[in-house]
Write a structure and sequence with these properties.
The complex is a heterodimer. Chain A is α/β, with parallel strands linked by helices. Chain A has helices at 46-53, 75-81, 97-107, 116-123, 139-151, 169-184, 219-224, 238-245, 271-281, 294-304, and strands spanning 4-14, 19-30, 35-39, 61-66, 69-70, 82-85, 157-161, 188-193, 204-209, 212-217, 230-234, 251-257, 260-265, 286-289. Chain A has a 6-stranded mixed β-sheet with strand order 6-7-8-3-9-10, with helices on both faces. The radius of gyration of chain A is 23 Å and the shape is globular. In chain B, the strands form 2 sheets. Chain B has a 6-stranded mixed β-sheet, with helices on both faces. In chain B, strands 2-1-4-5 form a 4-stranded antiparallel β-sheet, covered by helices on one side. In chain B, helix 3 (95-105) crosses helix 4 (110-123) and helix 5 packs parallel to helix 6 (169-184). In chain B, 44% of the residues are buried. Classes of the chains: A alpha/beta, B alpha/beta. The interface between A and B is large, with 34 and 37 residues.
Chain lengths: 305, 246
Amino acid sequence: MKAVLAENLVKRYGDKRSHTEALKEVSFEVKQGELFGIIGPDGAGKTSLFRILTTLLLPDGGNATVDGYDVVKDFKSIRKRVGYMPGRFSLYQDLSVAENLEFFATIFETSIEENYELIKDIYSQIEPFKDRKAGKLSGGMKQKLALSCALIHRPSVLFLDEPTTGVDAVSRMEFWDMLQGLKKQGITILVSTPYMDEASLCDRVALIQTGNILSINSPENIISNFGRSLVAVRSNKMFDLLKDLKYFEGTEDVYAFGEYHHLVLKNSSSLAEVKEFLSARHFDSEATMVTPGIEDCFIALMKSS
Amino acid sequence: MSESVIITNELTKRFSNFTAVDAISFEVKKGEIFGFLGANGAGKTTAMRMLCGLSIPTSGRASVAGFDVYKQTEDIKRSIGYMSQKFSLYEDLTVKENMQFYGGIYGMSNKAIKQKTDYVLNTLHLENEAKKLVRSLPLGWKQKLAFSVAIFHEPSIVFLDEPTGGVDPVTRREFWNLIYEAAENGITIFVTTHYMDEAEYCNRVSIMVDGKIEALDSPTRLKQIFEAESMGEVFLKLARKAVRSE
């Protein structure tokens, strides 16, 4: 049985005359125990998708199951078996850390003791502050408490909606370490993120943009399907270099990428031709072939769709 | 020598016994793209608020666009632009109305507002959207428009607080093209970001750790100093030392 199965899910907002299609026939499946990433920018439809799968929103078309249960008919069974951490902090700000956890354990008819083992690594980091009001916690601590509360009933599928948005690079890495730990305990995890570099930390990812899935695959396969030569170029005048490379005839696409520009070559062109082109105006430049990252793939998929 | 538009000397802000910003000293040159990095809770927002004239320092000195951060906060506010991911434009005003509103706030003449409005609509290819509510625009367009509105009154400095959060990778790059153009026109850019590749686009980058500036140099030099492959690695090496969080 698949942990999650979505078939042609559609979600529209607004009235008949003017509406936005947040999800346009989205289909995918997640295997049990998989760490599955939904990767895309704001407005891609990530939150609508999560809210449908956690039975908080009704789809306008298509169907979906979680752990074999239908998201419309069997919503009560699903709610008992999933954990959901929304993008916005949604715990009770005026309850203490311990009270919040106790509350969620009671709602799910379990106790903190029963499932302490599962949350130990995460909760022990905030336990010294268990009498502090949740509203007074730092961002990183709120996140750990929210994750503990989402896990306290030992869900079989965990939905995390943009847990790392607005979080600095160090805390983001710590958070992904926690997810790897949970995966080892057999929990299926669906996590959404706008950060392309987090894709490589997932078993498989769906790249999503304006309600369409652009690609579903393992990060390695998405990269190997890029299918064109990519050249990293830099010089002392990066902005001029970018403008000039747009006029190179072998250029299919060129864009800034950190300290380099990434140049996607037409099949007819070669690295030697790039160097030849650069020797005229950018004699100090360097150009080397590189392996694309998920962000390169996303850009290429966005532009071809 | 080009002139410095931001100068700070031992700038400090304390909230009772907590030192949010701890004696930071740096200068930003005219037309520079200056990246202001730090982990959550490092003190970036507090430092930015002082530089924008919104918070009076506890001690130290600083001037922004030639004005003193203690005594001339109103002059500072007139000389700068500000944009953040969270708040920038009025969603229930149209594209055009937002520009008229901001132009008016900064005391621009009607003629200047009209000229500038036409220019922005033209460069962003928003002519057909001029009369649409900002709410109805896709996020990427909103962010580009918000930046254009932040520099509408041609400030000498624009402060950008995580301007590209959540924006798709193509739009994020279009956004940075706007930043480069503004810098070429002499507007100084002071920008915070969580995207480490964007740190590479800056002329110089400072990294704050626990209220202090722990590193400040060009991305190339910082990578040499910290023996790192990327700015992300430099950031991790420094930010891991942090004791405090938000």
